[in-house]
Amino acid sequence: MITAAPRHLRASYDVVIVGGGPAGLEAAVAARDNGAAHVLVVDRDQEAGGILLQCIHSGFGLHRFGEELTGPEYAQRVVASTLEHDIDVIADAYVLDIDERRRVKLMTTQAGVSLVEARAVVLAMGARERTRAAIRIPGTRPAGIFTAGLAQRLVNLYGLLPGRRAVILGSGDIGLIMARRLTLEGIEVAGVFEIMPYANGLNRNIVQCLHDFDIPLHLSTTVVEIRGQNRVEGVTVAPLDETLQPRLDRAWDIPCDTLLVSIGLIPENELSQQMRLRFDSATRGPVVSSAMECSRDGIFACGNVVHIHDLVDFVSAEAMVAGRSAGQYVAGTLPRPDNVQLQPGANVAYCVPHTISTEREHTVYLRARKPLDACTLQLTEPDGTPVYARKLRYVFPAEMVNLKLRPAILQNFHGSILRVNIVERATEGE
Hints:
There is one protein chain. The chain is α/β, with parallel strands linked by helices. It has three domains: about 10-130 and about 265-330, FAD/NAD(P)-binding domain; about 130-265, FAD/NAD(P)-binding domain (3-Layer(bba) Sandwich), CATH 3.50.50.60; about 340-425, Sandwich (Immunoglobulin-like). The chain has eight helices and 27 strands. The protein has helices at about 20-35, 70-85, 130-135, 150-160, 175-185, 205-210, 270-275, 310-330, and strands spanning about 10-20, 40, 60, 70, 90, 95-100, 105-110, 110-125, 125-130, 145, 165-170, 190-195, 215-220, 220-225, 235-240, 250-255, 260, 265, 300, 340-345, 350, 355, 360-370, 370-380, 385-395, 400-405, 415-425. Strands 1, 2, 5, 6, 7, 8 and 19 form a seven-stranded mixed β-sheet that branches. A five-stranded parallel β-sheet has the order 10-17-11-12-13. The termini are far apart.
């Protein structure tokens, strides 16, 4: 892995990329291949590779590399490609600010604070986990409460066990994977508790991490109290009614010394907010064009900083678009601006990118608001005029839907707004 700074940090770069995870490294390679002679990647961790370094389980790379890899194996391939392209990578460094002239203020352990000029910038900072404070669980504040990702880091990178008997709140993928990981390490997992009436992780993780290890999953149930002084001694859980309010009359206590919280990720966008980019309230990430360009000229974004992905393979695909566009921007070959705005419609939480062009091929990523079986993905004009339809076996909020749009699909569309809907087949045309 890359752990050291480049021998000589240049005063200016064609493209500066913030974040050295899979999104940042893939974007760097794509920028280098598309007109950017000098590319710098800045990462705050001690070595590049991102969160994949602690994801020692398999299941990565089937789309990107055509084979199943562990997280570190996936990261190593991306890092190797970065090194082959003569890209500067500086680890253990922070980006403090990016001004209106795209001057990047860095703080490094070796050189202190430096100012680097960039002709284009790609934001690839990833995401962070929601904590207990985000949902305000009542009770005391003892030791033994971890986010699922922190527990994963402790176990997989440092060989430390968080406890002996654990409860997991939330059915996100990291929580499901950690239910299996803790079990394999001899820790008893009393159960996984999910506030929604459906799980929020990939179906394969529900099967492989819970069903295969007889770990119970309690839907429409949440933790309503944490007990313990110096250390967690137990939690109280309760089922929820139709309005997501806990039924305290049906609550029960579970003795445990560890609580893992797996209640979702938030795009790491403090820097983006500081730059006053335009944001999408649904994704909590910046609004981007089909070139992954933000509302400020020459600023691009990709990966979990834009919206939370379910597979790293899709992060890579999106990062390649952002990096290619940044390189084209520097070279003066960026395609003409988009001419169609995408709007989420029925049962669609969001769609990315937010605009597309009728002249080029695009991949649009979207998420359903609620599960549906035997449904149809529709593109319609604002008045309901159909433009395109595709049958789907099912949709699930935890799994992104990918839609490839080619110019031929939109040849009969002459407006400026497309609405994206997911409807039950029985209600089509109503």
